């Protein structure tokens, strides 16, 4: 019986022996994370050891854009990485890339090659390991079998993966003690169109670098010994990754989790997150063991995981890295998700990255902490102790505000998906209105500059004057030290919040690749920074460097232009939605409506002008996103229909029969049968209504199958299928509360939450 399967699975999960992992020991002690960090990465340090100095010099010049890679250099690097990886057990190599499906892809090729020689008139074939520069530089997967949005068809199958030289190669464990060499790559079509997420991220980073360097050259004096001018800049990213862990055996009994990644049925248990006791609580032993093993593997891959903790919802957790250069950070985030998935299986757990796997409790996001740094070690979003006179910071800040104001709908499109729709706007994630939170004190700095008055250092909470760079809090306990208070508070309701020296793009979905949202953010900021640069040049006239007066004029101009995008309050309230409408800020509630913003003239023109996307690439992405939305919803609907007709309704029928037989038996022996009859009367209309709503969903799905055009199909999924699914779920969840537990076929939320 279904209940027996659930019970046996729960008992098995509680009696299973824990997995033990032997961490490396050196000189009688466990090695620290710093000692093993990056040991599986073919880093610049490793390359410098294994390559001839002239070859290594050529490669580093190529990394800086000083030259293209010639064949001898590629061959030398290929030989070195082959020797390095084979020494570590590698038998295969793969070009690892990011197709347009929020995941990664890989095709394994063996180093094995057959060499034929001739001696004494005989042919002899010998097996050898080879890896050439041409094999390193590119490979050729089938471009018609990945999402392309119409840019590729079945008879146009040729595509290329090309080594991304800025992302280091690494090895990962393979089967039976072997390993595999991974070559981070971009994926392009035969005609050069980007068929992946990384190509456009690289393009957006290039334009961001170029525009930011121009900006710095306009406002900073030429080189001197004490203050050298920046020669390079780069965007930085830290991606906080939220996820759920559940028992893998219980997961196998839930068709919805296996197919859709979320529960399509299930009611909340009496206790879930309302006591607020899970967040930052003690990490369950089994989960801690799994995350610890993940951290160990990720450290060997050079991924700097810094924090781990319980998140708000039961069975929800988070890991977060140290900030890195954006392109590397994206690679590392995708590696983190992959390692979490693999290690969870070893611990008989299943990791869920869906933004809302359980209805009624918090969902998961991927908070992208974004900033920009120079090769001199400066963070351009560091406000310093006196932000009111830090004109470089203020100019860069207002450029970001202008980018978000002009292209907020584009940023909303970048985080849109059928799965993230379940999370956005709920009371753990920002709504569909893109706004910027700066914090009261930084907001005061901008207001004071706009109004031409001194900054008021006033702290409403403590009724005393304070410096804008923060305050010291007296905890009124002699044994406790005073602590420094940050410049700004944190606003967890804001989709784009300043958090001290970076912006936190909170609306990105947990199972989404960060590439596309960050690409759009880079592009929007670069475009706005070009406007700031133009305004500076106009104000400067014939001067080579802008004066403080010039900078202040431009800062004030852009503060006025961007005031509408700044909001310091609660983004969840109806009052904010009304206020945002007055300000002209779009409120895009559903993904299908957001996708079209990518092709909106001002957005498309900006992305094409910067060279980040071609028009064909933009159209393809809208097509892919829209198609994926429609497929996700219809797959969920078909799964729900199957579960209700094959599991939920049969359980309800059987329980009705047992109640009826019990009532009849009671009556026959003269015992009051009112309790059974009352429960039967409560159950029967629910069962009948569930039958009717299930038929409604089936009819809508039959109607959807007749729709041939993509956009009407997606709108139909959004406006017709999802409401029908909600109606079916509501009734099924009510039945879960009434049907005898021994007959209910699906693991319940109580079991899913607690058996880890």
UniProtKB/TrEMBL annotation:
GO terms for biological process: glutamine biosynthetic process. It holds the Pfam family Gln-synt_C. SUPFAM superfamilies: Glutamine synthetase/guanido kinase. Residues 197-648 form the GS catalytic domain. It comes from the Eukaryota. Belongs to the glutamine synthetase family. This is Uncharacterized protein. It comes from Phycomyces blakesleeanus (strain ATCC 8743b / DSM 1359 / FGSC 10004 / NBRC 33097 / NRRL 1555).
């Amino acid at each position: 019986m279904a209940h027996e399967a659930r019970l046996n699975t729960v008992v098995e999960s509680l009696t299973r022996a824990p997995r033990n992992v032997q961490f490396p020991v050196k000189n009688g002690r466990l090695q620290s994370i710093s000692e093993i960090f990056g040991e599986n990465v073919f880093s610049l340090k490793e390359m410098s050891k294994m390559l001839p100095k002239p070859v290594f010099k050529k490669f580093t010049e190529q990394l800086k854009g000083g030259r293209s890679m010639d064949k001898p250099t590629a061959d030398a690097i290929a030989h070195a990485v082959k020797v390095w990886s084979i020494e570590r057990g590698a038998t295969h190599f793969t070009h690892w890339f990011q197709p347009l499906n929020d995941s990664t892809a890989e095709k394994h090729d063996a180093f094995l090659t057959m060499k034929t020689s001739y001696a004494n008139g005989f042919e002899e074939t010998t097996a050898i390991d080879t890896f050439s520069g041409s094999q390193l530089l590119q490979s050729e997967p089938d471009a018609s079998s990945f999402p392309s949005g119409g840019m590729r068809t079945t008879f146009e199958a040729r595509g290329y993966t090309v080594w991304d030289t800025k992302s280091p190669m690494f090895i990962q464990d393979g089967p039976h003690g072997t390993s595999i060499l991974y070559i981070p790559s971009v994926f392009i079509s035969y005609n050069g169109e980007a068929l992946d997420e990384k190509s456009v991220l690289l393009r957006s980073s290039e334009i961001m670098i170029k525009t930011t360097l121009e900006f710095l050259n306009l406002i900073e004096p030429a080189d001197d010994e004490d203050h050298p001018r920046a020669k390079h800049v780069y965007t930085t990213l830290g991606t906080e990754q939220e996820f759920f862990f559940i028992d893998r055996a219980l997961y196998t009994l839930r068709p919805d989790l296996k197919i859709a990644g979320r529960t399509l049925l299930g009611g909340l248990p009496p206790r879930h997150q309302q006591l607020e006791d899970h967040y930052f609580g003690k990490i369950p032993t089994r989960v801690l063991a799994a995350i610890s093993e993940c951290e160990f593997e990720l450290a060997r891959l050079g991924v700097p995981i810094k924090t781990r903790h319980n998140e708000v919802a039961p069975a929800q957790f988070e890991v977060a890295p140290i900030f890195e250069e954006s392109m590397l950070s994206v690679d590392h985030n995708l590696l983190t998700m992959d390692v979490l998935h693999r290690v969870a299986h070893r611990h008989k757990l299943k990791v869920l990255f869906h933004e809302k796997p359980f209805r009624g409790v918090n969902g998961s996001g991927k908070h992208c902490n974004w900033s920009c740094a120079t090769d001199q070690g400066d963070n351009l979003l560091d406000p310093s102790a006196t932000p009111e006179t830090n004109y470089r910071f203020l100019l860069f800040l207002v450029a970001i505000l202008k980018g978000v104001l002009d292209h907020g709908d584009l940023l909303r499109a970048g985080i849109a998906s059928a799965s993230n729709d379940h999370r956005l706007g709920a009371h753990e994630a920002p709504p569909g209105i893109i706004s910027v939170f700066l914090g009261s004190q930084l907001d005061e700095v901008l207001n004071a500059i706009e109004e031409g008055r001194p900054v008021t250092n006033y702290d409403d909470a403590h009724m005393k004057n304070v410096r804008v760079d923060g305050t010291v809090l007296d905890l009124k306990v002699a044994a406790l030290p005073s602590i420094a208070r940050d410049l700004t508070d944190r606003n967890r309701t804001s989709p784009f919040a300043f958090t001290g020296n970076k912006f936190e793009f909170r609306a990105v979905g947990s199972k989404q690749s960060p590439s596309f949202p960050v690409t759009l953010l880079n592009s929007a900021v670069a475009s706005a920074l070009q406007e700031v640069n133009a305004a500076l040049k106009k104000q400067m006239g014939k001067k080579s460097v802008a004066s403080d007066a010039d900078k202040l004029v431009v800062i004030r101009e852009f503060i006025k232009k961007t005031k509408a995008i700044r909001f310091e309050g609660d983004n969840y309230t109806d009052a904010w939605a009304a206020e945002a409408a007055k300000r002209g800020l779009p409120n895009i509630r559903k993904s299908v409506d957001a996708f079209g913003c990518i092709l909106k003239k001002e957005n498309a023109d900006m992305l094409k002008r910067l060279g980040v996307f071609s028009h064909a690439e933009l159209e393809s992405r809208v097509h892919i996103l829209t198609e994926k939305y429609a497929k996700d919803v219809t797959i969920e609907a078909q799964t729900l229909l199957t579960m209700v007709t094959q599991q939920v309704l049969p359980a309800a029928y059987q329980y009705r029969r047992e109640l009826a037989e019990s009532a009849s038996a009671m009556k026959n022996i003269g015992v009051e049968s009112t309790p059974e009859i009352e429960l039967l009367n409560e159950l029967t209309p629910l069962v009948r209504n569930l039958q009717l709503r299930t038929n409604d969903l089936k009819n809508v799905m039959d109607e959807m199958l007749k729709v041939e055009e993509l956009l009407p199909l997606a709108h139909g999924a959004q406006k017709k299928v999802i409401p029908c699914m909600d109606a079916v779920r509501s009734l099924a969840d009510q039945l879960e509360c009434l049907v005898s537990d021994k007959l209910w076929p699906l693991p319940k939320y109580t079991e899913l939450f607690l058996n880890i």
